[in-house]
């Protein structure tokens, strides 16, 4: 294996390697860390972030960014809880419809006006948060999930894992195929690598951009709906900073912030890595949960520096 191949492997699978090391160290250091109950807790708590991060992966590979997913997550939860009084189908479709429209509007503005995704989705973050507060009387009203079938979607289990985990696994598999084995996935990579060259090759740049932002919004709304089913209520104080966690997981997983490179496997590994770090901090006991943000921030900075060095090494070879 030459230097270029080694650099590519480290960039794509570095998070998975670090995850494996942390799991081994945690298992040796703490008796309770390797217990099935703790592993299941990490996986379940990470599943909602993973769903959001899958959509964020497509956005970042295309060269964009989506800051609205945290607000869409909490809006999806509130709408799902509100809609549950009309049945499970409404509880699931209402947040998907509203969040999908938000993603469509953001995608159209970005694709047709050329405005920076950071600005457009930042406006979306604020606007969606305001819409959620208007629906919930500025957070004073918490809607409860009234449909038992919908609540089961978030609380039921199969093979010892809750339904949201199985949904996450299914979505990850579909996303892998979509990204690696379809023309749409190749278009996403092409646009992130060089948008002007992609347009000259006949890639439908505008349409592809709209699709990735709709996908990101739909997955954020779905994650919020599943979380509401799990909690049996549409909690209005959730989702703050969740977009940063999703971006961190995607970048830690090896996706370049500049676009054009990345994958779903790395993103899932990045999400689990953040979950394992939180679990290890809880195992220590003397550290607060806020310490995870410090560790995650330092780790993210190291990953970005490593990506830059690896990219430079690939150009030199």
From TrEMBL:
Major subcellular site: membrane
ATP-binding is among the record's keywords: no
PANTHER family the UniProt entry points to: ABC TRANSPORTER PERMEASE PROTEIN YPHD-RELATED-RELATED (PTHR32196), INNER MEMBRANE ABC TRANSPORTER PERMEASE PROTEIN YJFF (PTHR32196:SF63)
Keywords, in A-Z order: Cell membrane, Membrane, Transmembrane, Transmembrane helix
Phylogenetic lineage: Bacteria, Bacillati, Actinomycetota, Actinomycetes, Streptosporangiales
Mode of membrane association: Multi-pass membrane protein
Transmembrane segments: 12-30, 42-65, 85-105, 117-135, 161-179, 210-229, 264-284, 290-310
Subcellular location: Cell membrane
Name the record gives this protein: ABC transporter permease
């Amino acid at each position: 294996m030459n230097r270029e191949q080694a650099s590519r492997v480290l960039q794509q699978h570095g998070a998975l390697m670090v995850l494996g090391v942390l799991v081994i160290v945690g298992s040796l250091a703490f008796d309770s860390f390797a217990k099935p109950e703790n592993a299941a807790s990490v996986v379940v708590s990470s599943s909602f972030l993973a769903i959001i991060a899958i959509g964020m992966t497509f956005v970042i590979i295309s060269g964009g960014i989506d800051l609205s997913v945290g607000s869409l997550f909490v809006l999806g939860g509130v709408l799902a809880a509100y809609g549950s009084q009309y049945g499970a189908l409404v509880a699931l479709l209402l947040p998907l419809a509203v969040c999908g429209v938000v993603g469509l509007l953001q995608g159209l503005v970005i694709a047709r006006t050329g405005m920076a995704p950071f600005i457009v989705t930042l406006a979306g973050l604020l606007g969606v948060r305001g819409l959620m507060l208007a629906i919930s009387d500025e957070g004073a009203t918490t809607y409860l999930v009234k449909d038992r079938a919908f609540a089961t979607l978030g609380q039921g289990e199969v093979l010892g894992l809750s339904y949201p985990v199985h949904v996450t696994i299914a979505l990850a598999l579909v996303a892998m195929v979509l990204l690696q084995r379809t023309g749409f996935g190749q278009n996403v990579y092409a646009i992130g690598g060089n948008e002007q060259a992609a347009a000259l090759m006949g890639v439908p740049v505008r349409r592809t951009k709209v699709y990735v932002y709709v996908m990101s919004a739909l997955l954020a709304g779905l994650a919020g709906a599943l979380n509401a089913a799990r909690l049996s209520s549409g909690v209005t104080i959730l989702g703050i900073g969740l977009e940063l966690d999703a971006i961190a997981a995607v970048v830690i997983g090896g996706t370049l912030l500049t676009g054009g490179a990345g994958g779903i496997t790395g993103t899932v590994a990045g999400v689990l890595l953040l979950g394992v770090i939180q679990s290890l901090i809880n195992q220590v006991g003397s550290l607060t949960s806020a310490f995870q943000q410090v560790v995650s921030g330092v780790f993210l900075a190291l990953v970005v520096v490593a990506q830059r060095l690896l990219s430079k090494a690939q150009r030199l070879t």
